[in-house]
Structure formats: C-alpha cells, structure tokens
Amino acid sequence: MTMRKVKKIFIWVVTFVMAFSLILWLFLFNLEHVAFNLDFYKNEYLKNDVPSVTKMEIGELLKVTEKMHEYLKGKADDMDVLANIGGDLVRVFNDKELAHMKDVKNLFKLGFWLKDISIAVFLAFFALLVWQTSFVKTLSLLQKGVGFSLLALLILGVLIVLDFENWFTLFHLAFFNNDLWLLDVEKDRLIQMFPLNFFEDAVSLIFKNTLIEILAITGGVFAISKLLKEPS
C-alpha cells in the first residue's frame, strides 16, 4: 500500500470520527436541553393527565421536577422530596424509585462527560484536517461526513419510532444492570409522572432538533465552501 493511499484512508477515518463527534455533541446538547426544559415537562404532564393520575397539582409536580433537575445536575445530594398529594404532605418517591434515579444520575454524568469530550474531539480533528489538507477541503469533507451521519441518524430514528417500546426496553437492559427500572404504574409515582408517551415525545423532539441543526450546519458549510472555493 502506497503512502498516498494510507494518507487517503487516514483522512477518511479522521473525517468520520470528526463528523460522528459533531453529531454526538448535537444529540447530547439537545438531550440536555429537553431533559431540563421545565416547559416541556409542564406540557407533557398536562397532555398525559399526570395531575389526575398522581393527585398532584401542576405546581407541585413542577416543584418536584425542579428538585429532580437539581439532583441530576449534581446540585442536590438526593431527590427525596415531600409534596402535597391529595391534601396530605407525603413522600413522593419510594426507596426503589430513588435507587433507580441514582442510576439515572450516573447515566447523566456520563452524558455530560461525553458531550464535553465529543466537542473537543471534533475541534481537534477539524484542526488536524485543516493542517493535513486545507480549510476549504476540510469543509468539503465535513459536509460529506455529516451527510453520511445524517442518513444513519434518519434510519435509526425511523427504526425507533416504528417500535419505540421495544427500543425503550433494550435501552434499559443495555444501560442498567438491575431491575430497578421495572416500576409499578399502580403505586410508583415516577412512572406515573413519566409514562412511555413522555419518553417517546422527548426522543422525537431530540431527534427532530438534531436533524434540523445538522441540515442547517450542512447548508452553512456548503455556502461557505462555495464562497471560499479554491481555484482549480
């Protein structure tokens, strides 16, 4: 294999990793935005009739949600919270639910770390390609790499939408090494607050926002490439 061919393979590997890192960062950025968007929760609670199911007023539900957000961000040591439920001040979550949320918090910590790493990798590999080729060539490579990633994301999104419940179960089996996530809708408020429809809407919104941003980036990169195109 000649050095020229080796360099070509190297360039394409770097391009793929660069594009994947950008897509991952966008996905995690949108996941974080949706996960901590109080308006999204309010709309979902009303849509899924959560106040009626949990016997909690929407204001109480949002207070509990804010406490959960603080916990997942590492700003609170626990999310064992009291709330007015049916006129009584009671503990919202039981020990099993709190134990599961500890696992969820660890998953969020991993997500925060991956988000920081992915943008760092993207910037480093973008700079590497500029050094190895040129700025305009790097933009062209980025456009192609993101295009392939967009196609893969679209296929994945369609597969998930077609059988969301199965994918939701597979996700939990892959990322949790216990059965704490198997909650009882009759007595566990965590699943009453966050039924399957909540997660389906959240994932759909995350995918939609990510796809829109990818299309915007692709269009922007294409326009800049045209403006800066090097004479042949």
UniProtKB/TrEMBL annotation:
Listed transmembrane segments: 9-28, 117-136, 148-175, 202-224
UniProt keyword terms in alphabetical order: Membrane, Transmembrane, Transmembrane helix
Signal peptide as annotated in the record: none
Domain of life: Bacteria
Protein name: TIGR01906 family membrane protein
Species in which this protein is naturally found: Caldanaerobacter subterraneus subsp. tengcongensis (strain DSM 15242 / JCM 11007 / NBRC 100824 / MB4)
